[in-house]
Amino acid sequence: MIADAAMRGAEDDRVMKGFHHLDSGDCKSAKAQFDEALTNNFSNIGVRLGLCQALVGLDEVKEAEKTFEAACSLEPGPGYVKSFNRLGIGLWRIESYDLALRAFTRASDINSNDPILYYNMSLVHIVQLQLDEAEILFEKALKLKPDFVEAKQVLEKVSGWKENLADKDK
User: Fold this and answer.
1) For the segment 21-55, what is each residue's pLDDT rounded down to a tens digit?
2) Alpha-carbon span 21 to 42, nearest angstrom
3) pTM of this prediction?
4) pLDDT, tens digit, for every residue of 116-130?
5) Of 55-64, 92-101, 116-125, 161-170, which one has max mean pLDDT?
């Protein structure tokens, strides 16, 4: 993660420290570093995404949502795909599924050729029992990367899950 920080405005030492704190699990210190860095560069998307990750780690979901909205309003470059993806994973872990999907979608808006993003979106849809949507996204991931073993394995299970849900609805 720290190597990625260089693409996200890490010329500010506070940004590097913030990502270092995130990597070590110290979300409170990370938040403090990112808050400080924002005073210098209010429009730094990398800082906003880092702050959002720290807020998610601190279980401050409402503040994370506001920070996410601010980050999405800025125009990111290709270096931010991993940042949005990592944020989506963090949001998925705390069951903030709608926001996780938005983070993955934002990443795919930047790079629509990344099969991992569609795979991650599929997993969120599975948790929400939106199996048709999950199936479509798994297929999209496999179209981009035909040898994507994990996507193939889960896609094979989706049809069984759909049948089980249909049987329960009867």
Assistant:
1) 988 999 999 999 999 998 887 777 788 888 988 99
2) 20
3) 0.76
4) 999 999 999 999 999
5) 116-125
Token readout for 33 is 């570093």
Return phi, psi of residue 74, to 5°. -90, 160
Spans of all domains in the chain: 1-99, 113-170
What is the residue whose two structure tokens read 């599924």?
A: 97
φ/ψ of 119, rounded to 5, equals -60, -50
Q: What is the largest CA-CA distance in the chain?
A: 60
- Could you list the beta-strand ranges (E) of the chain: none
C-alpha 106 chain-centroid distance: 9
Burial class (CB in 10 A: 0-12, 13-18, 19+), 95: exposed
CATH 3.30.70 fits 1-99, yes or no: no
CA angle at residue 64 from 58 to 65, to 5 degrees?
150
